């Protein structure tokens, strides 16, 4: 029992692809959850959880490490903040992490969300979820020489 306890505690730190999870589910349906857990060296709880999510796992790409990470807690807020960032960038204004957080806090108050803090971690996750990167606006500051066309 000591070896299985160590094995299953390591299980929570490993990542599994959707294809692996589907193989475990198929084996568990042929035999049972406990036998599948022993065969693939995962916990029986993981097998039970994966069986519940089998419909979602079939729709995912096979190499995706399925159902990892958290989903966003305030989707309506994040859609509005993403629009704000996109519009500001299209208009040529710079967007900083601080401006995103301040706008998100104001919007949360307007939407009546009380448990939102607009933390640094939330902002980082928001930018990853929406494929935003903080970058500088670049302009060509030097003019080209007047004799360029003549040569």
How would you explain this protein's 3D organization?
- By secondary structure, the protein is an all-alpha fold.
- It has 8 helices and no strands.
- The radius of gyration is 25 Å and the shape is elongated.
- The N and C termini lie far apart (about 85 Å).
- The model has no long low-confidence stretch (mean pLDDT about 85).
Entry summary:
By secondary structure, the chain is an all-alpha fold. 58% of the residues lie in helices and 0% in strands.
Write the layout of secondary structure elements.
Elements: H1 2-11, H2 18-30, H3 33-40, H4 44-52, H5 54-59, H6 75-90, H7 97-111, H8 120-129
Any descriptors?
151 residues, mainly alpha, 8 helices, 58% helix
Q: Low-confidence runs (pLDDT<50, min 5 residues)?
A: none
| Shape category | elongated
Taking the sheet with the most strands, its summary is:
none
Order of helices and strands: HHHHHHHH
Report the average pLDDT across residues.
Answer: 84
Distance between the termini: 84 Å
Secondary structure class reads mainly alpha
> How helix-rich are the residues, as a percent range?
55-70%
Number of strand segments: 0
- Per DSSP, what share of the residues sits in E-state strands of 2 or more residues? under 5%
Number of helices: 8
Radius of gyration: 25 Å
Protein name: Pogo transposable element-like 15
Domain HTH CENPB-type: 65-136
Pfam family, one: BrkDBD
GO cellular component, one term: nucleus
């Amino acid at each position: 029992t000591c070896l299985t306890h160590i094995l299953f505690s390591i299980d929570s730190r490993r990542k599994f692809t959707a294809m692996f999870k589907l193989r475990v589910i198929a084996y568990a349906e042929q035999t049972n959850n406990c036998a599948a857990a022993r065969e693939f060296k995962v916990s029986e709880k993981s097998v039970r959880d994966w069986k519940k999510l089998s419909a979602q796992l079939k729709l995912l790409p096979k190499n995706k490490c399925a159902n990892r990470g958290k989903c966003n807690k305030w989707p309506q807020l994040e859609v509005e903040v993403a629009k704000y960032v996109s519009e500001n960038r299209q208009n040529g204004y710079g967007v900083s992490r601080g401006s995103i957080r301040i706008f998100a806090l104001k919007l949360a108050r307007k939407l009546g969300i009380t448990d939102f803090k607009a933390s640094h971690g939330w902002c980082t996750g928001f930018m990853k979820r929406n494929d935003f990167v903080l970058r500088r606006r670049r302009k060509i500051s030097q003019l080209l020489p007047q004799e360029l066309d003549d040569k």
